[in-house]
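Repro case for the chain-ordering regression, as requested:
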Amino acid sequence: MKIKPLKITFESIDTFAVKSRTALQNVIQNKKSAVQKKDVLVWASVEAYQQFMSDQKYTILAVIYKYRPQSVYQLAKILNRAQQNVARDCDLLERHGLIKFEQSENGRKVKAPQLIFEYNAIIVYLPSVTYKVEFEEAA
Amino acid sequence: MNKSLIIMDQILDISERFRVELKVYEVKSSMKYPDGIKVRFVLIDVIRKVPRLLLDNHSPYGFHIHEDLPKNKEMRRKLEMTDYIEALDEFWRLTKVITNNEN
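-- result from build under test --
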């Protein structure tokens, strides 16, 4: 099966600021669109990303991909973790652009955690090395 | 309803707590947005689920910054510049101050 990955890249605040400046110039002067791709997330530092992206969060993403839980409750059951802790992790994953919440397929009011798009791996582009986390292996 | 078209959308995750979103929209030229450009540069406190710093450009203020968020939504500081790039530079300057002190 073809890997459709989410890509994580790194740029310092200063580098990103310079690039955003150029992008804004192009947008204002040349009407050239500068919309970041949905399959790329940019972090300001490797340390910050690694601090955020615990093994538990990777596992959450893998379980969402593989089992498609219809609620955080179901997700927590699969993970055998406290729902409150899973909910907090999901909240952070959502706010950092890795997952979204959609109306569950069974039509209930609860919202189902879903990947932000149908990715089945994360590729992390560190400055010196690139590594890939595939969900089939992580779940 | 006035249509707006997003022409710039750039996101930087600074830390677990902070995320920057830079959005620029092409909008119908109006009293509110005479240039037909709406900017929204925001530093979000992801943990507290609130904007921590917001720069926008609607009239009657022009470029202005909300820097006492989330406590004081009505507090605005008008920026003297009229240039989009200078406004973005100021946003980044303040973002670095906040994230260095509060991260």
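Ordering looks correct now. The longest helix of chain A spans residues 13-30.
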